[in-house]
Specification:
The complex is a heterodimer of chains A (227) and B (754). Chain A is an alpha/beta fold and 227 residues long. Chain A is built from 5 helices and 11 strands. Chain B has 754 residues and is an alpha+beta fold. The chains are: A alpha/beta (227), B alpha+beta (754).
Chain lengths: 227, 754
């Protein structure tokens, strides 16, 4: 039996079908989850995809965190279930405090869509074990509220504990503090990042690279070896 | 105040009505009276006035647009045979094979975008997306052909960032990749920017839906956003007649968009389609409920009865006239069998979309609208939707046309030295029109949906539509107002030819077109002549290329005072590619590949980028069009792509060969060594804008096969160089390092606008 990865759809989620495709390409079974259902359908891991859930009203991710599905996700994430938040999903994870910090509007105030070079800083998380620490990858970045901020103490803590998972290379695209593109929780099961690995999993489309596939093969290995 | 019911209208035939303020002419008002056999009620007058407006009725353009049908390619042509739904529906539909149908359309949102750039552009995207959705299709991509005033004009700095942010803000929230379009600057668009928006949608043949209301007893369901007072625009006079002083006075004439609501509407509607719950469907755009109800009813078999007071409102003080005319966004109207209504409403509830049964299809022939039980509209729906006035506007070739054409651009002073040629190359490729637009297009999401194969700055945007078979579609939009000003007939054909060439250059087979015809005032015979010539040119061109017109949009009155914009027909060509892995990009990515120039290069500088940038000149004749040659070039490019004979291809158009080389080199990060063939002047080689040309990069192993193919089919192919080094090196002339080229090409737009 292959591992099952839940992909949540909130109203306004955009990359849910793309994420399901990436999960499938990696050899996992994607399971659509609906924001109103508390039931996670016994999935082994969950991805919160990108988009503008609830129209980003109030603040990106601020309303989604109160959705019924998130109650269960928060509970199970604390119990060790792997959770990946991409872009808006990362914003939701910071709103739930599963991950520290917050995302503000890009320092140049524009939406930016580009192929973004990253360095994988932590290759020991549930979602990054198929990379090597220090590996450079390119995946699409596309957001308007992507500037990662946290207080100095939190940032120092993240650095000290090796919880900065990804850093921007070749130019910080949005003013994120310490070039942070993504972080992990202490246990390494909850990871969030602004760039979109699910858009870099097939050679013929998107940027033409498959640098993002490692997220999904990492979780596959983790789940298969656990079972 | 008294409700102006049908009964009341019968009793008070002599009431003065504000038909003139609503934009109707006296004879048009008289015609409404004669259709109804009485004076219209306020609500009826409101409906007729918006539906008989130029925007909705095409009353000035109709007689010319007929050619698109009359000259449509026969069914035995690839394009003619592929047409599933033609002009007249929300959008045309084309068969692309494997059971798939593709619908696409380009529309204008010019005037609102000048007044309120962000919302104008945003709702332009929203409107075209709903048109595509209403056909039964999932929207899969958008594109935006944009034209602004001079790049360094202060007002451009107001309009452009707002338009770009509006397109991004709305389109990005819908999850639609933005895969192409254009950005053009010219002083002629200073007070009249052109904001055109295109959307492409995909469905299976059996999922095609049409806007019709049939089957007596079927329910009329309005769903989506609540109706507010936005976008009433032309009826503000009427509004002030029916408003009393305690109400809010003027509301903005520009609609306000909510992309989150539209995203829900898309997903909700697609789920409704999947369960086959609708008989007919129509989006609400221009003219709002007036348009949706009258068009649905006239396309169906019976009549329609609507209880207008059931419409959910954002503002409870709206009058029935205002509700009928409101252009509030993110609304759709569906015709649903009674047995399916519950399920329909359930799906709407799932997506938090408000849905209300507002009426039903009747077995009569009238569109009847009631307000709290009293009848306020009783009309034959066709007279509102389709039988509006038609004008044969007078047209005449303007007296300045001869002088303009006599002012030959080929006689302008040319660079005297190689050094001067180098300077002019840098000047042209760094000019606002020729410079990289990535600062703009990087504000649009081009990756969402995960099917984007090609996006700007590629020749065409391309998306995969089937993951298993790799079937894809490509779309390019092109227009050149400068060419069309010099000769509208040829200019329209050049727009068509360029768009066709762009699609073919990326490896896709052109099938059909949509167009957005942007012109000045139809009341000016010179403008009307431009329009007549452009439509004739386009219709003739489509017949010759075998690509039918599937629909489109006309935008008139793009002028300030007496000064009209350049006639600007924008053409969008849709093509199909069997295997997207075979697509041809523009990038020169491998050293050693041989560069071939396909087609004939003549001395054709009329309307060229060079003449504009170096001499601020517009005169002479545009490049000549040879549509047989375009077809041949297209076939060669498509075969080369399918059989893997070329690694890169780039169409030649504004800016000429040097523009194409610049873009292909920078895209691939490789230089090019160019050898000027004997018998051609280096300046002409680099800057001429002769049509029917492309540059291709051929791997050495494929050279013989490729040149044999060109030779056998009679397409001139001249070897002009090789992909090599870190510079564009035109031997014996000049060399420009890629870094210098990149700086020149990419710094311009951010410096002007950011």
């Amino acid at each position: 039996m292959t591992a099952r990865v839940g992909v949540i759809t909130f109203p306004g989620t955009l990359d849910d079908r793309d994420t399901q495709r990436a999960v499938r390409i990696a050899g996992l079974e994607p399971v659509p989850l609906w924001h109103r259902d508390k039931d996670l359908k016994q999935v082994d891991a969950v991805v919160l995809p990108g988009g503008f859930s609830y129209g980003d009203y109030l603040r990106a991710g601020a309303i989604s965190r109160f959705s019924p599905v998130m109650e269960t996700v928060i509970e199970q994430a604390r119990g060790g279930m792997p959770v990946l938040g991409i872009c808006n999903g990362f914003q939701v994870l910071t709103e739930t405090h599963l991950l520290p910090g917050a995302m503000l509007r890009n320092n140049h105030l524009h939406f930016i869509c580009r192929d973004q070079k990253l360095r994988v800083e932590n290759a020991d998380t549930a979602w990054t074990s198929d990379y090597e620490a220090g590996q450079e990858i390119s995946v699409p970045l596309k957001n308007i509220d992507g500037r990662y901020v946290a207080d100095e103490r939190t940032l120092d803590e993240l650095e000290a504990e090796g919880r900065v998972a990804f850093r921007y290379l070749d130019g910080n695209p949005n003013g994120s503090l310490r070039d942070i593109a993504g972080i992990t929780n202490a246990a390494g099961n909850v990871v969030g990042l602004m760039p979109h690995p699910e858009h870099a999993v097939e050679p013929g489309v998107g940027t033409g690279r498959t640098d993002g596939l490692g997220f999904f093969t990492s979780i596959l290995k983790r789940l298969v070896s656990a079972s | 105040m008294t409700l102006d019911t049908v009964k009341h209208a019968n009793e008070t035939p002599d009431v003065d009505q504000p038909w003139a303020e609503l934009g109707l002419k006296q004879d048009e008002y008289e015609r409404i009276r004669s259709i109804l056999g009485r004076r219209p009620t306020g609500a009826e007058l409101a409906m007729y006035s918006v539906m008989w407006s130029e925007h909705c009725s095409y009353k000035s353009s109709k007689v010319h647009l007929r050619q698109f049908g009359e000259k449509a390619p026969e069914a035995d042509t690839p394009g003619g045979g592929a047409l599933l739904v033609g002009i007249g529906e929300n959008a045309g539909v084309v068969d692309v094979g494997q059971g798939y149908a593709v619908t696409f359309k380009v529309e204008s949102h010019n005037h609102p975008s000048y007044i309120e750039p962000y919302q104008g552009a945003a709702t332009g995207v929203g409107g075209i997306v709903r048109d595509i959705l209403a056909m039964g299709a999932r929207p899969v991509a958008v594109m935006d052909p944009l034209r602004f005033g001079a790049a360094d004009h202060p007002d451009t700095k107001r309009v452009l960032p707002g338009v770009v942010a509006g397109i991004g803000g709305y389109g990005n929230c819908l999850g639609l990749p933005n895969i192409g379009g254009e950005v053009v600057f010219d002083p002629c668009y200073q007070g009249n920017p052109l904001v055109n928006a295109l959307c492409v949608g995909v469905m299976k043949h059996e999922d095609i839906h049409l806007a019709k209301a049939s089957g007596a007893g079927n329910k009329v369901i309005l769903y989506g956003a609540r109706t507010g007072g936005d976008g009433i625009g032309g009826v503000s006079v009427l509004a002030s007649e029916t408003f009393d002083d305690s109400k809010p006075a003027k509301r903005p004439a520009v609609q306000v968009g909510d992309p989150f609501q539209e995203k829900l509407l898309i997903e909700c509607t697609l789920e409704i389609f999947r369960e086959d719950l609708v008989d007919g469907i129509q989006d609400l755009g221009g003219a709002g409920l007036s348009c949706a109800t009258s068009e649905l009813a006239s396309a169906g078999s019976g009549g329609m009865r609507v209880e207008l007071d059931r419409v959910p409102l954002r503002d409870a003080t709206l009058s029935p006239e205002e509700i009928l005319m409101s252009e509030s966004q993110e609304r759709m109207c569906a015709i649903v069998e009674p047995g399916k209504v519950d399920r329909f409403l359930e799906i709407c509830e799932k997506w938090d979309v408000i849905a209300t049964v507002i009426g039903e299809v009747t077995d009569g022939e009238r569109l009847e609208i009631f307000w709290h039980g009293e009848q306020i509209v009783d009309v034959p729906p066709r007279t509102v939707a389709h039988e509006g006035p038609v004008y044969e506007r007078p047209y005449a070739r303007p007296d300045w046309q001869d002088a303009l054409q006599a002012d030959d651009a080929n006689k302008l002073a040319r660079p005297a030295t190689a050094e001067e040629l180098r300077e002019q190359v840098l000047k042209v490729i760094s000019s606002p029109n020729q410079a990289s637009k990535s600062w703009i297009t990087d504000q649009y999401d081009r990756f969402v949906q995960g099917n984007t194969v090609l996006a700007q700055p590629e020749d065409s945007g391309m998306v995969r539509i089937d993951e298993d078979t790799n079937l894809g579609v490509a779309v390019a939009t092109d227009g050149n107002g400068r060419y069309a000003k010099l000769d509208p007939y040829t200019g329209a054909q050049l727009a068509l030819a360029e768009s066709y060439r762009n699609v073919a250059a990326s490896g896709a087979r052109p099938l059909a077109i949509s167009n957005c015809l942007n012109f000045g005032s139809p009341e000016d015979p010179a403008v009307m002549w431009q329009f007549a010539e452009a439509t004739r040119g386009l219709a003739d061109g489509c017949l010759a290329l075998g690509t039918p017109v599937t629909g489109g949009n006309v935008s008139l009155y793009n002028q300030t005072g007496e000064t009209a914009i350049h006639p600007t027909p924008v053409v969008a060509v849709l093509g199909v590619i069997d295997d997207v892995d075979r697509r041809t990009p523009i990038a020169f990515s491998d050293e050693g590949h041989l560069l071939y120039l396909l087609g004939d290069t003549k001395e054709e500088l009329g309307g060229s980028a060079w003449s504009q940038v170096v001499h601020d000149h517009l005169g002479g004749l545009p490049p000549a069009v040879d549509l047989d040659r375009e077809k041949l070039l297209g076939e060669i490019l498509i075969s080369a792509s399918r059989d893997g004979m070329v690694d890169a291809a780039h169409d030649l158009s504004d800016g000429g060969l040097i523009q194409a080389l610049t873009e292909s080199c920078l895209r691939g990060g490789k230089g090019a060594r160019i050898v000027v063939p004997d018998g051609i002047d280096p300046f002409v080689l680099l800057f001429s804008e002769s049509a029917g040309r492309a540059v291709v990069a051929v791997p050495r192993s494929e050279e013989l096969r490729f040149t044999d193919m060109c030779g056998a089919r009679g397409l001139p192919a001249a070897r002009i160089g090789v992909v090599d080094g870190e510079a564009i090196d035109v031997q014996g002339q000049f060399s420009i390092p890629l870094a210098e080229l990149r700086e020149a090409h990419e710094a311009t737009i951010p410096a002007l606008i950011a």
